[in-house]
Amino acid sequence: KQEVTQIPAALSVPEGENLVLNCSFTDSAIYNLQWFRQDPGKGLTSLLLIQSSQREQTSGRLNASLDKSSGRSTLYIAASQPGDSATYLCAVGGNTGFQKLVFGTGTRLLVSP
Amino acid sequence: EPEVTQTPSHQVTQMGQEVILRCVPISNHLYFYWYRQILGQKVEFLVSFYNNEISEKSEIFDDQFSVERPDGSNFTLKIRSTKLEDSAMYFCASSVGTLAGITGELFFGEGSRLTVL
What we know:
heterodimer; A: mainly beta; 6-stranded mixed sheet; globular; B: mainly beta; 4-stranded antiparallel sheet; 11 strands
């Protein structure tokens, strides 16, 4: 059974810092991995999708990497801003066509001005 | 930009009552999903739906739950007789698909918060 873990559980940084969020998963037979952002009481916003054959994806200040064999992904946020404050969720898609995602518990990020 | 829309945003119901949560997936998407998030816990998969039938469901999705695509645009989740432990945020999601090289990226709605008293 796939288990997804995210560390740290919470992170507080001053504005402008570069930071790394970590995600690990127990079963490397994945189809893809998605990073989401969740604001309090809100839905999930897709940030980046990495296919299992890819090593990384970039979108603006965000860069996600995937090391499938070691069961790890990182989300790198450059030059953090207060608007980046949210919970970041990692979700792993299983090796089927139906994209059942298994989510981690998330990292709660606070960026202070 | 196309988005998944969900109604209601918040519903309060008495234990034992039936609840229907509604979703309008993105129009060209073929796969539809329901997930839920109990307060303070992980987002959990409930069910996936493709070609007018359930393709996968979790152990949470027991006989009290059902899904339906009553027309070409709506996708509903019905809970027949709600329990206290059904209180959660329910998220609908859709994706284009994962066949023939399509990405399989899931897009989520804003959620329906269900409170069972």
